[in-house]
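Continuing the batch. This is chain 6 of the set; chains 1 through 5 are on the previous pages. Same settings as before, nothing changed between runs. Recording input and output for traceability.
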Amino acid sequence: MTQVKIVTDSSAYLPKELVARYDIEVLPITLNWGDERLRDGVDITPDEFYKRLDGSSVLPTTSQFTNFEYETAFRRLLEETGKDILVLPISQGLSGSHFGAVKAREDVDPKRIEVVDTKLTSMALGFMVLAAARAAEAGKTLAECKKAAEDTYEHIGVYFTVRTLKYLAAGGRINTAKKLMGTLLDVKPVLMLRDGKIELVESVRSTKKAIRRMVELVEKDIAGRKPVRISVFHAGVPQEAAELQAELEAKFGAVEGIISEISPVVGSHVGTGTIAVAFQAGEPK
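Output for chain 6:
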């Protein structure tokens, strides 16, 4: 019997079958769109979001998960499950949600709740969540599940490219976005998540070249380590994602392959057409 309940947020956007398989609690972050308040993955799906985004004159924004919301969730889960809680939220470098979780932990029960600064989001975060969930399924303690998550971080990497820089620039998620917009109108950046923040790796002149460069970077980072887990996740471009996923699974002999969508709450900062690759290479000792 598992002793630990794994909690993450909707930025991870794990496929529903994996959420159900490991009984993971996913807390929905709120998307603000004009006067609407939409719970990510509950009130709006990625498919609905991206169809609407391209035709909208109003850019959506996001609200962090507050300490009150975390506190309410923690008390409910402790009562319903009787299990300790491990919280794996979006990187604190991208959202204030982490601080809300830390404050709620202190207010509810710091002995039975642990919070990790994952420094990740989307399916890169998803791989960390799965590592913790598998440890919980194996009957590990709260401390052991936390260690499993933290040890996995060094084995995870993620690269992505966006169709347009306007969403990153508007959200202030990468300082170089506005500079690039002013110099290269058709630039396609190759970006990565490093130490919890988005960084520009380089820029190329087409999406095709950006994807090829991502593949090269992933191969360099994997460096022959085994086993390999691969996830291509996307913002409204399922065909391109499926083709890239098949290529990468074959190239690296992946033991696990996951195609996922970029959640609306993350999509609001990167825009339609974004395509990304997350990987986990090797196993923590």
